[in-house]
Hints:
Distance between the termini: 53 Å
Order of helices and strands: HHHEEHEEHEEEEEEEHEHHHHEH
Strand content: 15-25%
Helix content: 10-25%
Structural class: alpha+beta
Strand order of the largest sheet: 1-2-3-5-8-9-10-11
Largest sheet: 8 strands, antiparallel, barrel
Number of helices: 11
Oligomer: single chain
Shape: globular
Radius of gyration: 23 Å
Amino acid sequence: KGLTCTAKCLGDNSCITGCMARYGNKQLDQLLKCTVEDHECIKIAILPGGADKFGEEPRAPKPTVQNFDYKSLQGTWYKVVGFNPNYDCYACQRNTFALPDEQDEVKFVSNSGNKKDQEHMLHMGVEFAMPHLLPDGSPPPPRQVRESMAVFKDDGSNGMAESGFRSIGLNEYNTNEIMVFDNVQDDSDGNKLVLNEGKANEARYSRTAHSEGEMFGLKFWENWYVIGENDPDMPEFKFIYYNGKTRQNNYEGAFVYSRSRTLEPESMAKVYKVAKEAGMNPEQFCRIRNGCFASPNGAAAVPEPLFAAPNNKGPASGSNDEIFRGIIASTKVSELLGVEAVSAREEGANKLSTSEQLQPVQRNPGSNRPWWYEVGDYLENPHRHFEVMDSLRKPMEWPEHVRVSYRE
Length: 408
């Protein structure tokens, strides 16, 4: 089913991402690795593999931070703002950096063949969650399920029957990478991505770091560029632009790291400015939902509705479907989205408990699922999976004073 879904995408990256969110599992990863990467039984690899040589990588959209201290990344960071909807806006994104142990260094150096790499390395733990549609009658998601939730489809009509519900699964993913930070002092041949080298106004457009890893069974190579960070008197943040490739396509994106689960108000003006200077539209950034993580300082999440009424002023008072708007069918996902948990509500419409109405009934994988659902999986529109993911994306809301200050 996963292969059929991706084949029908005809190379559309967004569509393929949705298919992998819906059908991805260990078996599919292994099949793709074997047939595409290792033995090329499926010939969709059209690009040469391998990392870019330092100085020959794509140019950064703005100069990178000079004299960046890679050890300042040690510890835990949350991705709080993202740019590329295909890759950067997943929920529950947390990265942890640590100096690698000797075993990590030996393993990476043996793969890269460059002993200098071990001089500037950090071990990176990656966590994120991908939402996907669970059609009626489907079994639970294939792996690492967090919870499930019901989402109210607000199309302007009143009543549950007209608008309907969709069951959404959240798959947690955890992986590890080694991030190698490029030592600009080793650039003895001169770097074409450096302007005014050695002068007071030197500007470097070369990468800050690079890594390689594997996702959905397919290998990728990435270049990272630190194009902004906090001033000394501000809360910590790092603005990262990246580009990368697999043997199937190229991609790029950007995100902001913060020590807290959300972008601090004091940092917004500078983050906005960096985005504009890099040629990115700040209004196209998303705010990443990290309510599933406990706050580092113990502060509670600020409640917010998942969906608003068509007039953007929230649910209409007294409407028949008012109690369903913004209600999430599990406590864990309620924490993620920052809304009141179903368990906190006593009754819903028709005197049924809200959790009974909204909690999707999931079948065991070995149960007798109706045959028409199985056939429907092969005939479905493959784009609908990413459409569900994109519908949960939360646009970044910049304060008006931030917009005004940049214009001035």
